[in-house]
Amino acid sequence: MAVFAVIFALVLAFASPAHAQDTRLPVSASFSILSDIVKAVGGDRVDVITLVGPDQDTHTYEPTPADVAKLSGTKLFFVNGLGFEGWLPRLMKSSHYPGELVTVTKGLKARTMVDDGKTVTDPHMFQDPERVKTMADNIAAALSKADPAGANYYADRARNYRGALDDLIVWANKQLAPIAPARRVVLTSHDAFGYLGQRFGIKFLAPEGVSTESEASAKDVANLIRVIRRTGIKAVFMENISNPRLVQRIAHDAKVTVDGKLYSDALSKNPEATTYLQLFQYNIRALAAAMKDNR
Ligand SMILES: [Zn+2]
């Protein structure tokens, strides 16, 4: 009987898929895009929990007690920082998170912009694939520290990911090359694409500021409609995370059609942008197609 029990236990230990997963490093990430980059670097050695999922808005998110419970079981918590997760200080205080908080934008130069007359830091660094390369290295460093046996594995994967991003940057420049600088103007809901615009020479206009929490003023909206009419901008987009109504109203009043949506601060539930690499390709394709119509 005892022998049987031992054999049974051994069979369970080798047969159970949970056995392999038990050895994975449990980590968490604040939002879907970051979660995907952590998965790209961490591969089979990590299990990633995501707080703010696909098509959800990180700016307006409110952590639930269930989220706090999920978070507490993870060794590392990856966040964007730069004020992107406005709820983070409150969460850290209330959750007594026992693991290590890793800010992936650390060491990267942030851009600032004027929002409602105030100079603010733009947190949307993940829209610049060049900066995402450094974010991947920061992620690899944090994973290696928590799981030293996987250091080479993480370094290899980060290098591969950097290579994929380099290829994408070359590809994006080719897509955009036929579009004259004067035509590279786009309207979206909120100021999420400043880094992308800086990298690829595109000017983004938005009725809302760097956060979707701020309301667009009637004066800003009226100004945008005037700008669209005067400049002949045809590239007008909604975003997957925000309410489309404001952009639709502006497009209607300015007598232009909405070109569809861009993926700003989250991956998609549909198959269009389920990884960061896909999200970036989708956005560049959509932007290039729409900007061709600008006069
Ligand atoms: Zn945003």
TrEMBL record:
InterPro entries: AdhesinB (IPR006129), Bact_metal-bind_prot9 (IPR050492), Lipoprotein_PsaA-like (IPR006128), ZnuA-like (IPR006127). It is found in: Cell envelope. The keyword Protease does not apply. The keyword Signal applies. It comes from the Bacteria. One of its GO terms (biological process) is cell adhesion. GO terms for cellular component: cell envelope. Transmembrane segments: none annotated. GO terms for molecular function: metal ion binding. Belongs to the bacterial solute-binding protein 9 family. This is Metal ABC transporter substrate-binding protein. It comes from Pandoraea oxalativorans.
